[in-house]
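Onboarding guide, step 5: your first structure request.
Type a short instruction followed by the sequence, for example:

Predict the 3D structure of this protein.
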Amino acid sequence: MSGLIGKKIGMTSLFDENGKNIPCTVIEAGPCVVTQVRTEEVDGYNALQLGFDDKKAKSSNKALDGHFQKAGTVAKKKVVEFQGFEGEFKLGDSITVEHFAEGEFVDVSGTSKGKGFQGVVKRHGFGGVGQATHGQHNRLRAPGSIGAASYPARVFKGMRMAGRMGGDSVKVQNLRVLKVVPEKNLLVIKGAVPGHKNSYVIIEK
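The system replies with structure tokens like these:
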């Protein structure tokens, strides 16, 4: 689907016409530069490669510099391919937040916040085993049995246990666009999106 690359600014809230307080996320969406045009004849499919957020010259290399110079722009920190754009685009074209309209629905992808090593109650939603009585003092959030002993005499792969949590690719679907602010390249979206402040997100129609 067509879309843009953005940066999560943070969360706020708006009041609707009925006075209801709506939590929403502010995203700096674009402007994104077309850095490559994929065509059916050359690549076997149609797509646009978009670049977002300028990169320092010292952080780039000659291969990347040459790629972006063809589009007449500087090196970009984030590059993503999108399919489904309508109309003709050429190298160097800029696509702004006006690609979206108020009231339409979008999908937002990002990398969730890393939460480090967590137990099964937080990581998988276990209820905890046992009760606080009968003399036990530290087993309230334990996972309980993880398998039989004599057979199969091992722990099955995929067993839900404690471990590293977060840092995963997450897509939140069907979020409504509440407001578009073209002069500041801002998109206000209902609800929460994955990632920390200033993290990159992908907004798809």
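Each response can be followed by summary notes, for example: The mean pLDDT is 91.
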